[in-house]
Amino acid sequence: MRAEARLVAEPSATPDGGTRLSTVYGEPPLLWRRTGPDTVHLVGGAAGPLGGDALTIVVEVRAGARLCVRTVAASLAQPSHPKSRSHLRIHATVGAGAVLHWLPEPIVAVADCDHLATSTVDLAETAVLWWREEVVGGRHGEPAGDLRVATTVRRGGRTLLRHDLAIGPRADGWDGPAVLGARATGTLLVVDPAGDTLAVDPAADRPAGTEPHVLRLAGGPAVLVTATGEPRDVRAVLDKAST
């Protein structure tokens, strides 16, 4: 299956301001539903992604607009027979003074899947970004399939973050202490020119067995929070960081 979804947000011309969605386009299984003044949920119109799927999501937040993108449920990367790779491509652009919160549910690498998720985010110098990604190795009681998540964030045309993670049978040692040593992992990247909007103490209220880390990036006013552990514990750490 090949499918594409596009979403464009811009400031509303009404006196009370707000966000106007000038473009809302989606092909199954990528369907948009507006759920708040500046919030949109991505609704899965079919199972997947399945092996062989090629899915593309393009999001543009124009200068001065605000947008929060969520999903209604976790994504299950499913296998196909014969086995072939599925690919989800995400490209987000955030204009001057605009704000994008990208806060989806986790992606689960179902046993025997082969899935690639690539994200590219281009930020203006004064844009604000909250970008969250969570990966779970397999459903309960099953081994992880092959999953690679590659994310690039550029600010003002310069690379701010390049993050690449592979799990599953082809990624030797991914579940060992040198890589994850856990079933789930998640990251939250916060880029905010206004300064220290994110105050996270990795040692405070940490779920047992979960190892959160906070890294301030050298390329801009940005913080990267990373957590590993059981899925619910990783979620708890990122939920706390997202508030």
* Proportion of residues in β-strands: over 45%
Number of helices: 1
Overall shape = globular
Give the averaged pLDDT, no decimals: 88
Largest sheet geometry: 10 strands, mixed
Count all strands and give the number: 17
- Helix/strand structural class: mainly beta
Helix content: under 10%
N-end to C-end Cα span: 36 Å
Quaternary structure state of the chains depicted? single chain
Low-confidence stretches: none
The number of domains: 1
N to C succession of SSEs: EEEEEEEEEEEEEEEEEH
- Calculate Rg over CA atoms: 18 Å
How would you describe what is shown here?
The chain has about 240 residues and is mostly beta strands. The protein has one domain. The protein has 1 helix and 17 strands. Strands 3, 4, 6, 7, 9, 10, 12, 15, 16 and 17 form a 10-stranded mixed β-sheet that branches. The mean pLDDT is about 90.
In short:
By secondary structure, the protein is mainly beta. The chain has one helix at residues 231-242, and strands at 2-11, 19-26, 30-34, 39-44, 54-61, 66-71, 75-77, 86-94, 99-103, 107-109, 114-123, 128-136, 146-155, 158-167, 184-191, 213-217, 222-229. It has one domain (2-173).
